[in-house]
Amino acid sequence: MTRYARYFLAAGVASCLMGGLARADKPADPAAVSSEDGKYADKDGRPTFNVGKDGKVDFYTYIGYVRYTANCMHCHGPDGLGSTYAPSLVNSLKSLDYADVMTTVANGKKDVSESSQLVMPSFGENKNIMCYIDAIYIYLRARSVDAIPRGRPQDHEPKPKDFSETEDSCMG
Ligand code: HEC
């Protein structure tokens, strides 16, 4: 085997490994496999959306839309589509996992490599956001795979039985 052949073989193995890692990093299949009190989960137990054949969404997707619009839209644009200032979260969630979103929203993010100062604030102390972060994630996850169109969801499942209680105890 020539030196070059060995080089290409090694490069091939390395890119296979990297490809494998990149795939493993991708968000898991968003299909809902279980639900508890109106909140759906994927096969890894991560929060996910549920959209009925009639387009009716689960309650969390709906609340996520409302909370996204109130707290994130002024930077990230309507329907998660991005703005001149902040990236499209519809795109970001094609590669970011639940844990990535949690970390960024709680701790913030500052792109120091950009000449413009891009700052994602940290919301870890903001109950109006952290108490609804699963709902916001669920809504954006649905948007990122085109499960729901732009705009306010037209119809949603009823409010889960314990939703208000959980909300009140989180908001303190
Ligand atoms: C004050 C403007 C502002 C607000 C409000 C804001 N963001 Fe951001 N966000 C940014 C900017 C700017 C970035 C890009 C930061 C960077 O690249 O370093 C960002 C980045 C992110 C990222 C990482 C995207 C990626 O591809 O890495 C996530 C996730 C995110 N924001 C979620 C949210 C959510 C959810 C909300 C609402 C709860 C929110 N943001 C509210 C400005 C904002």
Features:
172 residues; mainly alpha; Cytochrome Bc1 Complex, Chain D, domain 2; two-stranded antiparallel ribbon; 8 helices
* Measured distance between first and last alpha carbons: 69 Å
- Mean of the pLDDT scores? 88
Helix content: 40-55%
Find the structural class using helix and strand composition.
Answer: mainly alpha
User: Can you identify the CATH class?
Assistant: Mainly Alpha
Order of helices and strands: HEEEHHHHEEHHH
SS strand fraction: 5-15%
Describe this structure in words.
The chain is mainly α. It has a single domain, classed as Cytochrome Bc1 Complex, Chain D, domain 2 (Orthogonal Bundle), CATH 1.10.760. It contains eight helices and five strands. It has helices at 3-25, 59-71, 73-76, 89-92, 98-107, 127-130, 133-144, 163-171, and strands at 34-36, 39-41, 47-48, 109-111, 118-120. The strands form two sheets. The chain has a three-stranded antiparallel sheet with strand order 1-2-3. It has a two-stranded antiparallel ribbon with strand order 4-5. Strand 1 and strand 2 form a beta hairpin. Helix 2 crosses helix 7. It is globular and about 45 Å long. Residues 7-24 have low confidence and may be disordered. Bound molecules: heme C. The site of heme C (HEC) has 24 residues, from helix 3, helix 4, helix 5, strand 4 and strand 5.
